[in-house]
Amino acid sequence: MHRPDQPEEFGEPGDLRELAGRLAVLPPSCGAVRLVAVDGHAGSGKSTFAGRLAGALGGAPVLHLDDVATHEELFGWTARLRAQVLEPLALGRPARWFPYDWVARRFGPERVLEPAPVLLVEGVGAGRRALRPHLAHLLWMETPRTESWGRGRRRDGSDLSGFWDGWERAELAHFAHDPSRPFADTLVHQRGTGYEWTSGAAATPGTPLSVTDSDGLPRA
Predict the structure, then answer these.
(1) How far are the Cα atoms of 17, 73, 104, 179, 219 from residue 124, in angstroms, in the given order?
(2) What was the pLDDT predicted at 164?
(3) Longest CA span, the chain
(4) Total of domains in the chain
């Protein structure tokens, strides 16, 4: 039996089924939906991990926060997410939002998301103060900031170096004011092609992973 104070290794995406099983039986946190956040620094592997976890959950939907953020509002998207996603889901209605096009610099056609047993919300700031009351669980990608940013810069190339300069300043300011990691239920470590996870500060030591008791970008 896994003890939360010991890491558990996952070598293939299918091995995430145990973690997925724990998440699937948590109490709903936003209407009938279990809202699970995947947060971490830009470039820390959130999108890849969220995609694998979604597969282990049987195809759970993933909402990427870079669909909600804009060039002008890298972190000022809380009210938009609340109005378009959180409030409708809390009432048992479909979420309707307009994904931002980072190339055209405008919002695109409407997308609709029906309430699901588990919804993964992935992006920098997914575990922020305004969102935590709506979360069933918060996962934090435990990749150091400088390593994450280096990955992101290499991925996006020199054409986006100016954007990354501004992003790094914005991310530093955001987490200085509104950190997510201290409230994480689970810390996710990438090990080669697999993952291991340990309990975060929000999980009570000596107990199974549980819902937090706390109090809403470029894809990474």
Answers:
(1) 24, 13, 22, 10, 9
(2) 81
(3) 50
(4) 1
